[in-house]
Design brief:
Blueprint (H helix, E strand, L loop, with lengths): L8 H9 L5 H10 L2 H10 L2 H8 L4 H10 L2 H10 L2 H10 L2 H4 L2 H27 L1
Helix pairs in contact: 4-6, 6-7, 6-9, 7-9
């Protein structure tokens, strides 16, 4: 993670405290950041941290934060989310981002993984 903040003492303080905070504390402190600091802070997080934070927010906020990301970063975030959340997060993207090649490939891949996982479970049940 790299700090890209300018005149953002609250964001820098949160950045320093981030690893030691619980998810509830992270969300509470993130929501207290002024919007320009929150934008930079969110963009500076690794995709896994972005996904974890995003999934704790209300759906409307999830849409806003997901749409802040460039398409390839949105794809990275969705890939880091739990499998059962990926399709729902994908639906929050705007049409242009959803049709981006990398994002579309990610969704196709996720669908195949789910298909073969379900097929495997069903076949095991039928064979036992």
């Amino acid at each position: 993670m790299s700090e890209t903040f300018t005149d953002t003492s609250d964001a820098v303080r949160l950045w320093e405290q981030w690893p030691a905070l619980t998810i509830e504390e992270r969300v509470a402190q993130f929501k207290q950041l002024p919007s320009h600091q929150a934008d930079e802070f969110f963009l500076s997080l690794e995709p896994r941290e972005q996904a974890t934070l995003l999934l704790t927010l209300p759906r409307g906020e999830q849409r806003l934060w997901l749409r802040v990301l460039p398409p390839d970063d949105a794809a990275d975030l969705i890939q880091e989310a739990p499998v059962e959340e990926r399709e729902r997060l994908f639906e929050l993207l705007d049409e242009t981002t959803r049709s981006a090649p990398l994002v579309a490939t990610l969704v196709d891949f996720t669908g195949l993984v789910l298909y073969f996982t379900i097929a495997s479970v069903l076949l095991r049940g039928a064979l036992l």
